[in-house]
Each structure stands twice: as C-alpha cells, then as structure tokens.
Amino acid sequence: MDVKIIGQSLPNMPWEERPKDCKDIVWRSKHNPIIKRNQAKDANSIFNSAVVPFKDGFAGVFRVDDRARRMNIRRGFSKDGYNWEIDDEPIDFIQQTRDPLVSEYKYDPRVTFIEDRYYITWCNGYHGPTIGVGYTFDFEKFYQIENAFLPYNRNGVLFPRKINGKYAMLSRPSDTGHTAFGDIFYSESPDMIHWGCHRHVMSAGYTPWQSLKIGAGPTPIETSEGWLLIYHGVLLSCNGYVYSFGAALLDLEKPWIVKARSKSYLLSPQEYYECVGDVPNVAFPCATLCDASTGRLAIYYGGADTVVNLAFAYVQDIIDLLKRESQE
Ligand code: BMA
C-alpha cells in the first residue's frame, strides 16, 4: 500500500472481500439492506445514517422517519456493524444554546470524533433547513449547541481534526425545497459556534452524474495524498433526481483546494433497494469505517430514502482511480 491512512486500526470492522467476478472499485454487501425500513419502533424508514467505532463495537446516529413521517435522529449500537439495535425514541438533546433552540426536524446525521468527543451534525429545521451541531462523550447524554449557519444549508460535514488550529466543516448552501443546485463550501471555526472564512471547494457539473448538485458525504479520511472525501452527486433525469456517489482528494492544509475528483461515479443506484422505496434512485453515503492498517473501507449509505446499505472498497484503489482519471 503506498497510500498511508492517518487513523486507527479497526480489525473488527465489517468486511466482505470483492466478489471474484467483480471489477468494480466499490462493491456492495451481500447482506444489503443491512437495516430494514421498519427495524425500529414506529419507523417508516431508516436511511442516511452515521456510525463510528465505539468501545468494542460500534455506535451510530440514525435517520428514522416515523409513521407520521416526522424526520428525526435516534441512537443505535452494534457489536459487528451489521446488526443494529436502534432506540425507540429520538435523541433528546440537552440544550447548551444561548436560549432554547427550536428544532422543527432533524435528518441526515454525520458523526465525527474530534479530540475528546463525538460531534454530530445534521440538517436541522430552523426556519428552513440549516446545520445543527451537537456532541456526546458516551452516547448516553447528548448536548446541542448553536446551529453552524444561517438557513438554508444541508450536508454539514466536520473534518476529524482541527486544521490550522480551527475546527473545519464542509457544507452545501441550499434553499427551502428540494434544491436544484448546490456546491460544496469550506468554513472554519475557533470554537464550534462561530463559523467563517468560507471558501468554495467544488461545484456541481464536471461530469453528468454530478451535474445538478453535490454534497459532502462521510467525514473526510486523512491520507498521505490528501483528505479523501466521498460525496454525493445528483443528476436530473426525465424521471427525477438520481443520487450517486464519487470521491475527491482535498489538500491537507487548504482543503478548499481540490487535487483530484471522480469523473465516474463509484456507486450509482442500480440494485432494487436503491431504486425502489420512498424516493427512488438514491444512494446517499453518510459514514465510513476505515482500518488504517489494511486500507479497508466500509461505506454506509442510504438506499431510496428507505433503508441502510453497506459497500466496501480499498482506499488505495479509490485514490488510484482519482489519480488516473485526473490524468485523462
Ligand atoms: C435530499 C435529502 C436527503 C435525501 C435526498 C433524496 O434533499 O432530503 O435526505 O436522501 O434528498 O430524497
């Protein structure tokens, strides 16, 4: 392996070898969907969810839309990364905001361990969608702090360490609806409350699968070649939006500089559980688990706004592809 991954060894992460007849860089779990739509109490659907290593297993924050179709996030635990116990109720955040902060809804969580705690970012309903922020030390008590941005914004994704002494976040300014545009921006903060020095990272376009809008997916992975960012891209077909995902390499110290970017998607909705559900044709990644010693990567992605799926890859293969495509 020439790419060095800066991160922990995770020998117990979920892993399935690439099937012999498969030449794809990213391949799907044989057990998909690993989380079914009604696997938690009163759930209409469970999708676009985030997991992290925790104690001798894994913990996660799950998007569970209930049978009233209210969007909220719940906690879950797993020993093996496949079988999840998800709470009956949404996370009850202890507010650490200046005064009580209304949260009309919560969806599409990401979880990022930084220094001493697990930060959670999500799309928070506050007079329209914006980026909500909270944290937990132990997955028992959860604290909510101020929203990172003004409405409207989605896909707020933290970097796993401070960069140049500041917390760093990618986000995607949007509108109140099903936004028909969207580029990825970078922002930094001294205290996780006040965000500024906003920089443009990359725009929709480039190649057709990502022509309408793009948004950061899982927490970026630090490697010797740069930050590996997996991101979703949307194409507008005569049948509506199609969500696929690809990857980019961002400069380590100036992550708004894109060193390489997917021309081809890594995974697009093709299997039944990605094409059929509450919103057809959606593959939406929100988390990865990565073993720094082997370069194995497990990608958790929502399917058709209904279920949670797993796919696998080697970090090295993704970076090789990015480099190859940037020379074409
Ligand atoms: C986006 C978000 C995602 C969802 C996608 C497709 O705007 O709502 O949660 O997966 O649309 O419906």
TrEMBL record:
Keywords tagged on the record: Glycosidase, Glycosyltransferase, Hydrolase, Transferase
One Pfam family named in its UniProt record: Glyco_hydro_130
Domain of life assignment: Bacteria
A molecular function GO annotation: hydrolase activity, acting on glycosyl bonds
InterPro entries: Glyco_hydro_beta-prop_sf, Mannoside_phosphorylase
Keyword Transferase: yes
PANTHER family per record: 1,4-BETA-MANNOSYL-N-ACETYLGLUCOSAMINE PHOSPHORYLASE (PTHR34106:SF1), GLYCOSIDASE (PTHR34106)
Family affiliation: Belongs to the glycosyl hydrolase 130 family.
UniProt name for this protein: Glycosidase related protein
Species: Caldicellulosiruptor hydrothermalis (strain DSM 18901 / VKM B-2411 / 108)
